[in-house]
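Researcher: Let's do a round of design. I'm pasting the structure tokens now; please hold your answer until I've finished.
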């Protein structure tokens, strides 16, 4: 193998390595974007879960009031 052939072979290998490196960097970028999207989704889910808890507490309070009102109505009907 001549020196020129060797240099050409090394250059081809380097080009292949650079392309591989670019592909890896691109995949890393894609993974970072996917990670961020997942984190955003988890955060939104957490906030929605908090909202559900607050709504549930409000519904419980309304149910308690309804029960009290129904009891009051029954007492008023009996008092007639």
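Researcher: That's everything. Go ahead.
Model: Designed sequence:
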């Amino acid at each position: 193998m001549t020196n020129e052939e060797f240099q050409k072979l090394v250059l081809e290998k380097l080009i292949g390595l650079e392309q591989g490196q670019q592909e890896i960097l691109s995949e890393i970028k894609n993974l970072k974007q996917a990670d961020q999207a997942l984190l955003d989704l988890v955060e939104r889910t957490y906030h929605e879960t908090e909202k559900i808890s607050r709504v549930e507490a409000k519904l419980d309070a309304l149910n308690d009031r309804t029960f009290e009102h129904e009891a009051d109505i029954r007492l008023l009907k009996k008092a007639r």
